[in-house]
Amino acid sequence: MDAMGDDVVNDWINQLPDEILVDIINRLSVVEAARTSVLSTRWKYLWTFITSLDFHSPRGMWKVLNKLDENEQSIKWTWGAVYRRYDREILVKRAKYICWVNKVLELHRGSSIDELKVSYELYDSHERIITSWIRAAISKGVQKLELNLRAAWGNRQYTFPKELSSISSLKSLSLSGVNVTSEIIESLVYNCPLLERLCVANSRPWLCLKDNTRSPLCELPKLRYLTLSVSAPGAGNLFVLTHMIRACPFLLKFTLKFQLVGPRTERAIKQFPKCAHEHLKVVEFIGFVGHSIDLELAFYLLKNSISLEKMIIDLTSPFSRGNYWDFEDCEEKKEEKKAARMRARKLKEKAPKGVKLVIY
After folding, report:
1. What strands, in cross-sheet order, belong to the sheet with 253-261?
2. Is the pTM value of this prediction over 0.90?
3. Is residue 258 within 8 Å of 291, Cβ to Cβ?
4. Mean pLDDT along residues 180-196
5. Residues 89, 153: contact at Cβ < 8 Å?
6. SS3 string of 239-293?
7. In this structure, what DSSP letter does residue 49 have?
8. Average pLDDT over every residue of 39-62
């Protein structure tokens, strides 16, 4: 295209109203959106009105480790030297990430933030900073909030503040590597009336849900998809999850990522109170072990989910999926999976006609 053609295109673009230009920029990553500020004086601040803020930097930490691995091939490192080098470079990268998020939120001029995603290795020592980001998003009516703070090294997790567990505009919430208590989860469920999706994973200490018999405080008619990551001892039970499901009368899919902790002790299977779930179509158990604790919940859902079409039983632990332990071929693990598969087949006896049972 010649210079005249370029001018025609530029004139056509510049005739578009700011709202359309911002909508176009909003489809770019935050970094790419910021780069548009150099195009012209008019474009300088347009990117600060975008409503989707995705601060995703999944390779930031691993680049440091990869560099160390490469250096280790040619240089004889001591563990202490490797750790000090890793620690120093990680601190620099983390500080840059925090400055990046702070700067973007500081410059943001729009009246709304529809989506905020934070994905980086951050700890409880960054509590004030992370909380300030969440507050900024809430003040602008955030609808989708995602915190993925899973640490590569260390377990000092950020704790989601209870005072922020009532977000009237929130439609989707995903918390990974964030410390959440049962009180916070219940508060989020009961105080976010527009919530449609909820995912809680990789929380330490593991989400420990209290066994109680109280009814839900309110309903979440908008919630369609609920995913929970729970660790519990075999002597415990998952009865409280039935309260959360009851609080979502139009729930379509329920996913439980389960980790059995402590000794694998068996006990008698309990009968949960009856309660019809009229719209639940798909139930998925990831990390199914077939002990009383997860069997009784599976029996309950088979019995009470009137519209159930499929129950998926995945025997792989959700916390080993995709890493070395997922492919580890030890005899003990083989036997555990074999036993879990045998116990999972008990569900076929309880499955109503028309419900498809899939076992992986």
Report:
1. 52-56, 115-119, 144-148, 172-176, 197-201, 225-233, 253-261, 282-286, 310-314, 356-359
2. no
3. no
4. 79
5. no
6. HHHHHHHHCCCCCCEEEEEEEEECCCCCCCCCCCCCCCECCCCEEEEECCCCCHH
7. G
8. 84
Task: Match 């703070």 to its residue by tokens.
Answer: 149
Q: Quick one: DSSP state of residue 46? A: G
**DSSP symbols for 158-194:** EEPPGGG---TT--EEEEESEE--HHHHHHHHHH-TT
Q: What is the pLDDT of residue 69?
A: 47
d(CA 39, CA 220): 45
**pLDDT confidence of residue 197:** 86
Burial tier of 76 (Cβ tally within 10 Å: 0-12, 13-18, 19+): exposed
Look up residue 248 and give its amino acid.
C
Q: Which two tokens stand for residue 322?
A: 């995709």
Contacts of 59 (CB under 8 A, 6+ apart): none
Distances (CA, A) of 320 to 151, 287, 333: 15, 9, 12
Does residue 71 have a pLDDT over 80?
no
Identify the DSSP state of 305.
Answer: B
- Position 276, amino acid: A
Mean pLDDT calculated for residue range 228-243: 80
Instruction: Check residue 45 and give its pLDDT.
Output: 94
